Recover the amino acids of this structure.
DNA sequence: CGTATGACGAGCC
DNA sequence: AGGCTCGCCATAC
């Protein structure tokens, strides 16, 4: 591509790529981990702008593991791409996460603490 | 450089 | 409990 990937977005993508399989994180949570106090909406944008096929640490970015603070999938079914909610739900279920048809899941149970895992090869 | 927008979130009513 | 409004942050125009 001729355009340079937005710096802030890249930080967000990195954090998202750290979410373990079978776990989920909220937009606000990701924002905070990326260094943004109240950047939940920015995270949403970063994911929307996520280049298809982008790989970090040799893996695709698990965008489907990001949900809202209500423990529900935020993708709308009515949009340019129909069935977005459904597609995310399928991906999550594929990892063993139980998701209702409405896109709701047990956040308390599947939430990624984000503490023990240090995948960002944090400068040390 | 000001305005509008969005896969959010917390507060209010 | 459900719905509406305002605040936040980084892009797009």
């Amino acid at each position: 591509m001729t355009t340079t990937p937005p710096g802030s977005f890249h930080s967000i993508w990195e954090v998202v790529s750290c979410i373990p399989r079978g776990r989920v994180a909220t937009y606000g949570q990701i924002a905070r981990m990326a260094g943004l106090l109240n950047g939940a909406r920015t995270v949403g944008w970063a994911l929307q702008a996520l280049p298809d096929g982008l790989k970090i640490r040799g893996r695709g970015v698990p965008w489907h593991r990001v949900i809202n603070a209500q423990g529900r999938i935020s993708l709308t079914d009515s949009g340019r791409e129909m069935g977005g909610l459904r597609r995310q739900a399928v991906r999550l279920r594929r990892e063993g996460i139980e998701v209702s048809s409405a896109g709701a899941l047990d956040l308390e149970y599947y939430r990624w603490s984000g503490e023990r895992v240090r995948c960002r090869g944090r400068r040390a």
Q: What stands out?
A: Helices of chain A lie at 7-16, 27-33, 40-48, 84-93, 107-110. Residues 26-28, 31, 38-48, 63, 66-70, 73-76, 79, 84-85, 88 of chain A lie near DNA strand B (CB under 10 Å from a C1'). Chain A has a mean pLDDT of 87.
